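Section 3.1: Structural characterization of target chains.
Under the original work plan, the team committed to producing a structural model for every single-chain target entering the pipeline before any wet-lab resources were allocated. The record below documents one such target. The sequence was received from the expression subgroup and is listed exactly as submitted; it comprises 573 residues.
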Amino acid sequence: QHAVAAIVRLSGLPAERIQVTIDPGLGDGFRVSARGGVLQVTASGAGAAVAGYAAFARKTGVAAVSRFGTRPVDRELPADVVVERQAQVESRVAYNLTVPGYTTPFFDWAQWEAELDLLAASGVTAAHVTLGQELAYVDTFTQFGYEEAEVLRWLGPPSHQPWLWLNNIENFGKGTTRALVDKRAELARTVLARMRELDITPILPGFIGTVPPGFADRNPGAHVVAQGLWFMDVAGPRRPDWLDTSTAEYATVAAAYYAAQDAAFGASGLWAADLLHEGGKTGGVDLADAARGVQGAMLAADPDSTWVMQAWIGNPRREVLEAVDLSRVFIVDLTGEAADAAGGFLDTKWALGILPNYGGRTPLYGDLAAVAATPQRWAEPSRLSGLANMAEGVGNNPVLWDLFSDLAWADGDIELGPWLDEWTTARYGTADVHARRAWDTLVEAAFGAWRHEHQGTNPVESQKALAGALVDAADTSGAAVASGPVAALGMDESALEGFVNPYGSTDSVIAAIPSLRANQASMVGPRYDQRVADFLQLIDAQETLLRASEDFLLGKWLADARSWGSTVDEGCY
C-alpha cells in the first residue's frame, strides 16, 4: 500500500508493524492507535493515513514528522493512546507558484520523495506543480512557427521559470536546454504519480496567453499585447507578450497546449491561471471576454476542470468573477485578507492562505498566535472551504508550517502553549526545559504580529531570534538532543543568555549599525573597537550556527544545480 510505504519511510518501522485500513466511511480523517507494537491506522485515504501517523507520532512523542526535523520511531509504541481527527476544511493547498524557483528547482527524486511524504503527513490535498511543464510550451510553440532553440531560450533556466508561468519574465540568463527539459519532464511524471498515490491533486499551470516574441508575425491575425516591464511597467525585466484570450487564435493555441500537457503528464482537473498578474495589460481587451476565453479553453480540454485563481494585488477582479462559471473556480487567497477587503468572492469556493515567506528568505517569522486563532474564521458566512500555505519558499520555518497544517483538523482555536510543549518534545525527542524556554523567547520576539517589512531580516538583526535559531538549527538532522539542544552546539545556558542579549533586553544588531556609524568619530579607542568586535562576533556566531545544517550551505545548493548538467556549460544554467 502507498500509505504503508510512506509511513515506513517516515517512521523507520518495518512494514509488518504497520497496519493501514482505508475506510471511506470515515469521511475525511483518521484514527490511529497501537496494539502489540503494531501501528494501527484507519483512514479515509492514503494521504489521511500518513497524516494520521504524523499526528500520532507527535502526540505520543515516539517520533516526529516535520520540515528539517523528521525523527524515526525510537521507543515502544504506547498502547493506551488513540489519536482521531476529522478535517474541518475540504481543501488543503501547498506551494506558492514561486516555490519551484526558490526551493525545489534542482530537487532530485530522493528530495522530492521526502517532500511528498511531508506534504501527505501535513494533510495536503492539492499542490501547485510546474516541474517539467515547460515541455508543454516546447511542444506547443514549435507548432506555431518557432524553432525549438528559440523556445528553449525564451523559457529561461529552471530556477526562473515560475515567473514565466506568471507572465512576469522571459529570456532570463542562458535559457534552458532540451536535455534539461526532458530530464525534468521525466522526474515530473514520477512526482505526479506519487502525488496521486498519496491523494495529493496536482495543480498544473494553465495557459493564460503567454507567448514568445514575434508571435503575431509568425501567426497572422493573432492579437498580441506587449506587456512592458515587470513590475507595473516601471521596473524589472521584460514581460512576455500576451495573446488576447478572447480570440479564436488563443483558443487554437490553448487547445494545442492542453493536448501537449495531457499527453506528457495526464490530466489533473485543476489549472492555475492568473490574468494580469502583478500589473499585466489588457491592451483594451474586455476583461470579461478575456476571462471567458480562458475558462472556455479549460472546459474544452476537460469539462470537469476547475480554474484555480490567486487573490493577490487586486485580483481576481470583480468583472472576471461575474463573467465565468463560478462552480468551476477555486480562489486561493494568498494572505487571507483579500476576501474581506474585496467583500468576498461572490459564490466562489476559496482557501484562506498565509504568506509567511517572501523570496525564499530564511528569517524566523510569522504570527503564531494569529495562526492558532484561525479557526474563528470557520464560522464566517462565506464559501471558505480550504487552507493554503502560500510561502514563496518552504526551506524554512518548520514551526509555522506545522502549526498551520494542524488547522486542517482543528475544531477550535489551538492553544499555543500546550501545542509548543507537544511540538518541541516530539521534535527534540525529550521535554527539554532549555528548548522550551527558548521557544517562549521566540514567540515573544520573532514570531509576533505579521510585519511584512521584516521579511528581509536575518538572525544577525535580532539577537532574541538567535535563541530559537540555536535551538532549532542544532537539530535539523532530526536527531534527538537528549542533553539539550544548546549542549549539542557545545554551549551552556549562560553562554546562550549572553549570546541572545549582549547589549540589553531590547536592542537589536540592526539598530546598532547606525549607532556605530553615527558615533564613529566619538567612539574612539577601546570602546568603539569593543562594539565592533561584539557585532562581528555575532556574525561569526551565526556562521557557526548555520553550518550545523547542510540546508544553509551554499555548496549544497550549487551541487544540486550542477547535478542536473549533462555538460559543463549546462551545469551553470
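The CA atoms of residues 112 and 257 lie 26 Å apart.
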